[in-house]
């Protein structure tokens, strides 16, 4: 091999070795797919968001183990993309001893359905408080009248 | 300040039921020994309603909200009757509003029942000598004890996957937000007892 050939070979080798890594990635590749994401919104019954609450996700095939976890944003929102496992996914959001567990039925062809309790309206709450108060008043009056009868008979 | 369903380990929930069951048994046996237990029933019924409804009054204390507990008031006004009153109120809150939970009913009963008994003990031992001071201490002390028990249970029942530091920081914020409530509940007991002393002294509890 001639000296000129050796020089050319060394120069080529040096160029390959010292080339910046970015130069190797001219060919960018992207894979895109349409998938189903779950978006959660956790808030207290007063409407206050569960800001930065901890989120735990349990997959249907192993509900005892945490499948994924994260932190909700300041508005109490959190998104995740579940694996293609049909069944009931469970999501727990908790903060300072308070929290909620929701279940999501994800089927092969069925739409995602959330199962969680809906907050009561103030009218419902007022009605329930009134019913309990009525029950307590009845109990109080019953006890009082019974005591009055006992006193009278004595 | 109620522990909801699904957050606490099953063993702790069962232990809570055992503890609350024990408290209820002791309370009922003490109530039986009272000379006229039925005379307290009307008061217990009405205060149970007040306790039940108090949880709906959310007081905004940024960055969170708090609600009245009234464990101190129930302890002072009802004595041993406070335990069944609290358990009935918690059960109705859980069933009707989803406030707290049925699996955590025992733990929540301990969180509020033990402070109520502390308030009762304080009032019974020193209420005649220093009624105002004891009323304030009973109301405030009950909230402080409830906070301590709540935090201890949450920390004891934390799952391994939970970020313990983040949860502890959130608990501190939660407890600090309750400081105004500590004062407020002390004042509530003080005002109620003062009003009773002036208007209906026969209703004043004296253990």
TrEMBL record, chain B:
Transmembrane segments: 12-31, 43-61, 68-96, 102-121, 133-157, 169-193
Keyword match Transport: yes
Major subcellular location class: membrane
Membrane topology: Multi-pass membrane protein
Coiled-coil annotated residue ranges, if any: none
InterPro entries, per the entry: CbiM/NikMN (IPR002751)
GO cellular component: plasma membrane
UniProt keyword terms in alphabetical order: Cell membrane, Membrane, Transmembrane, Transmembrane helix, Transport
Compartment(s) of residence: Cell membrane
Biological process annotations from GO: transition metal ion transport
Record-given protein name: Cobalamin biosynthesis protein CbiM
Species name: Roseinatronobacter bogoriensis subsp. barguzinensis
